[in-house]
Amino acid sequence: GHHPVAALFHLVFKLCAFLTYLLGGLFSSNAVAVFISTVLLLSADFWVTKNVSGRLLAGLRWWNRIKDDGESEWVFECSPKASKIHEFDSYFFWVVTYGNCAAWLLMTVFNLMSISKLPLCLLGLALGAANAVGYAKCSNDQKKKLTQFVATQAVQNPGLVRAAVTASA
Protein backbone atom coordinates (compact mmCIF):
# COMPACT_ATOMS: atom_id res chain seq x y z
CA GLY A 1 0.00 0.00 0.00
CA HIS A 2 0.83 3.66 -0.15
CA HIS A 3 2.18 5.33 3.05
CA PRO A 4 2.00 9.14 2.71
CA VAL A 5 2.38 9.80 6.47
CA ALA A 6 5.55 7.70 6.68
CA ALA A 7 6.87 9.45 3.56
CA LEU A 8 6.09 12.84 5.09
CA PHE A 9 7.98 12.07 8.31
CA HIS A 10 10.82 10.48 6.32
CA LEU A 11 11.30 13.87 4.67
CA VAL A 12 10.26 16.27 7.47
CA PHE A 13 12.81 15.24 10.10
CA LYS A 14 15.64 15.35 7.56
CA LEU A 15 14.53 18.73 6.26
CA CYS A 16 14.01 20.18 9.74
CA ALA A 17 17.43 19.00 10.95
CA PHE A 18 19.15 20.40 7.85
CA LEU A 19 17.27 23.72 7.96
CA THR A 20 17.86 24.09 11.71
CA TYR A 21 21.58 23.57 11.11
CA LEU A 22 21.63 25.92 8.12
CA LEU A 23 19.30 28.70 9.30
CA GLY A 24 19.22 28.29 13.10
CA GLY A 25 21.62 31.19 13.59
CA LEU A 26 19.17 33.54 11.89
CA PHE A 27 16.45 32.81 14.46
CA SER A 28 18.54 32.32 17.59
CA SER A 29 21.78 33.81 18.81
CA ASN A 30 22.18 30.80 21.11
CA ALA A 31 24.52 28.44 19.22
CA VAL A 32 24.12 25.74 21.89
CA ALA A 33 20.32 25.71 21.42
CA VAL A 34 20.75 25.40 17.63
CA PHE A 35 23.29 22.59 18.13
CA ILE A 36 21.06 20.67 20.56
CA SER A 37 17.96 21.16 18.38
CA THR A 38 19.81 19.88 15.33
CA VAL A 39 21.16 16.85 17.22
CA LEU A 40 17.67 16.00 18.50
CA LEU A 41 16.19 16.31 14.99
CA LEU A 42 19.01 14.20 13.51
CA SER A 43 18.40 11.56 16.18
CA ALA A 44 14.65 11.56 15.57
CA ASP A 45 15.28 11.26 11.82
CA PHE A 46 17.67 8.34 12.31
CA TRP A 47 15.14 6.53 14.50
CA VAL A 48 12.16 7.18 12.17
CA THR A 49 14.13 6.12 9.08
CA LYS A 50 15.53 2.99 10.70
CA ASN A 51 12.39 1.84 12.54
CA VAL A 52 9.42 3.20 10.57
CA SER A 53 9.94 4.60 7.08
CA GLY A 54 12.46 1.96 5.97
CA ARG A 55 10.01 -0.78 6.88
CA LEU A 56 6.92 0.89 5.43
CA LEU A 57 8.39 2.60 2.34
CA ALA A 58 11.05 0.06 1.32
CA GLY A 59 9.95 -3.14 3.11
CA LEU A 60 13.41 -3.45 4.68
CA ARG A 61 14.87 -3.55 8.21
CA TRP A 62 18.39 -3.78 9.54
CA TRP A 63 19.98 -3.85 12.94
CA ASN A 64 23.08 -4.94 14.78
CA ARG A 65 23.05 -7.55 17.50
CA ILE A 66 25.79 -8.68 19.87
CA LYS A 67 26.01 -12.46 20.00
CA ASP A 68 26.70 -14.42 23.21
CA ASP A 69 30.41 -14.65 22.33
CA GLY A 70 30.58 -10.83 22.12
CA GLU A 71 30.85 -10.74 18.33
CA SER A 72 28.85 -8.10 16.46
CA GLU A 73 26.41 -9.41 13.85
CA TRP A 74 24.48 -7.37 11.27
CA VAL A 75 20.96 -8.58 10.52
CA PHE A 76 19.15 -7.66 7.29
CA GLU A 77 15.47 -8.40 6.83
CA CYS A 78 12.98 -7.99 4.01
CA SER A 79 9.26 -7.93 4.67
CA PRO A 80 7.26 -10.80 3.15
CA LYS A 81 5.00 -8.01 1.84
CA ALA A 82 7.92 -6.24 0.09
CA SER A 83 6.49 -7.10 -3.32
CA LYS A 84 3.39 -5.08 -2.36
CA ILE A 85 5.42 -1.93 -1.57
CA HIS A 86 4.12 0.99 -3.63
CA GLU A 87 6.68 1.83 -6.34
CA PHE A 88 6.59 5.57 -5.57
CA ASP A 89 7.10 4.91 -1.84
CA SER A 90 10.24 2.90 -2.55
CA TYR A 91 11.56 5.47 -5.04
CA PHE A 92 10.85 8.33 -2.62
CA PHE A 93 12.57 6.46 0.23
CA TRP A 94 15.79 5.92 -1.74
CA VAL A 95 15.93 9.42 -3.28
CA VAL A 96 15.39 11.15 0.07
CA THR A 97 17.79 8.79 1.90
CA TYR A 98 20.64 9.30 -0.59
CA GLY A 99 19.80 13.00 -1.04
CA ASN A 100 20.12 13.50 2.71
CA CYS A 101 23.60 11.92 2.66
CA ALA A 102 24.63 14.11 -0.27
CA ALA A 103 23.43 17.27 1.50
CA TRP A 104 25.34 16.48 4.71
CA LEU A 105 28.42 15.46 2.71
CA LEU A 106 28.30 18.82 0.93
CA MET A 107 27.98 20.66 4.26
CA THR A 108 30.89 18.63 5.65
CA VAL A 109 33.10 19.59 2.68
CA PHE A 110 32.09 23.26 2.95
CA ASN A 111 32.87 23.29 6.67
CA LEU A 112 36.09 21.26 6.80
CA MET A 113 37.95 24.22 8.28
CA SER A 114 35.24 25.22 10.76
CA ILE A 115 35.93 23.77 14.18
CA SER A 116 32.49 24.88 15.39
CA LYS A 117 30.37 23.62 12.47
CA LEU A 118 32.23 20.47 11.41
CA PRO A 119 31.11 18.18 14.30
CA LEU A 120 27.42 18.72 13.50
CA CYS A 121 28.01 18.15 9.78
CA LEU A 122 29.88 14.94 10.56
CA LEU A 123 27.06 13.76 12.83
CA GLY A 124 24.46 14.46 10.12
CA LEU A 125 26.62 12.64 7.59
CA ALA A 126 27.31 9.69 9.92
CA LEU A 127 23.66 9.10 10.86
CA GLY A 128 22.41 9.56 7.29
CA ALA A 129 25.15 7.33 5.90
CA ALA A 130 24.52 4.63 8.53
CA ASN A 131 20.90 4.32 7.37
CA ALA A 132 21.82 4.55 3.67
CA VAL A 133 24.51 1.86 3.98
CA GLY A 134 22.34 -0.33 6.23
CA TYR A 135 19.45 -0.24 3.77
CA ALA A 136 21.69 -0.66 0.72
CA LYS A 137 23.23 -3.77 2.32
CA CYS A 138 19.77 -4.96 3.28
CA SER A 139 18.55 -4.53 -0.28
CA ASN A 140 21.60 -6.35 -1.71
CA ASP A 141 21.22 -9.13 0.86
CA GLN A 142 17.60 -9.65 -0.18
CA LYS A 143 18.51 -9.77 -3.89
CA LYS A 144 21.18 -12.38 -3.09
CA LYS A 145 18.71 -14.49 -1.07
CA LEU A 146 16.15 -14.35 -3.90
CA THR A 147 18.77 -15.39 -6.47
CA GLN A 148 19.90 -18.28 -4.23
CA PHE A 149 16.29 -19.38 -3.69
CA VAL A 150 15.55 -19.38 -7.45
CA ALA A 151 18.78 -21.28 -8.18
CA THR A 152 17.99 -23.86 -5.47
CA GLN A 153 14.46 -24.32 -6.82
CA ALA A 154 15.85 -24.77 -10.36
CA VAL A 155 18.25 -27.50 -9.19
CA GLN A 156 15.69 -29.27 -6.98
CA ASN A 157 12.79 -29.01 -9.45
CA PRO A 158 14.05 -29.22 -13.05
CA GLY A 159 10.57 -30.19 -14.29
CA LEU A 160 9.14 -26.98 -12.82
CA VAL A 161 11.79 -24.90 -14.65
CA ARG A 162 11.00 -26.66 -17.98
CA ALA A 163 7.29 -26.03 -17.43
CA ALA A 164 7.93 -22.33 -16.67
CA VAL A 165 10.17 -21.91 -19.75
CA THR A 166 7.60 -23.70 -21.95
CA ALA A 167 4.75 -21.59 -20.55
CA SER A 168 6.61 -18.31 -21.19
CA ALA A 169 7.56 -19.27 -24.78
Number of strands: 2
Would you tell me the overall average pLDDT? 86
Beta-strand percentage range: 5-15%
Major β-sheet profile: 2 strands, antiparallel
Quick one: overall form? elongated
Number of helices: 5
Distance between the termini: 32 Å
Structural class: mainly alpha
Low-confidence stretches: none
Oligomer: single chain
Question: Which sequence of SSEs, written as H and E, runs from N to C?
Answer: HHEEHHH
Return Rg in Å: 21 Å
- Helicity, as a percent range: over 70%
Widest sheet: strand order?
Answer: 1-2
Q: In words, what does this structure look like?
A:
The chain is mostly helical and 169 residues long. Helix content is 75%, strand content 8%. It contains 5 helices and 2 strands. It has a two-stranded antiparallel ribbon with strand order 1-2. Helix 1 packs antiparallel against helix 2 (31-58) and helix 1 packs parallel to helix 3. It is elongated, with a radius of gyration of 21 Å. The two termini are 32 Å apart.
